[in-house]
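As agreed, record minuted below.
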Amino acid sequence: MPVVTIPTPLRPHTGGQARIEAQGTTVAEVLSDLGSRYPEFQKRIFDGAGALQQYVNVYVNNEDIRYLDDLTTPVVEKDVVDIIPAVAGG
């Protein structure tokens, strides 16, 4: 199963877990699997329309999904899906 790395700010919504195996053949399916297990996590990464929040970036094996097939990017068993929240500063 693909492994999803959870950033520190979202870990309270995944029971403190930093890495979670998830089922799915696309990024959307993997994130949906996590969302079904951790509803608060899902609320943090998706907006009301089901799109990723603007401040959430997702990478598969270090490749930004925005430059691949976005949420329909395929994943396989040993892939690593990284969730990276954008950081703002001043």
Notes: The domain at 3-85 is CATH 3.10.20.30 (Ubiquitin-like (UB roll)). The chain is about 20% helix and 20% strand. The chain has one domain: 3-85.
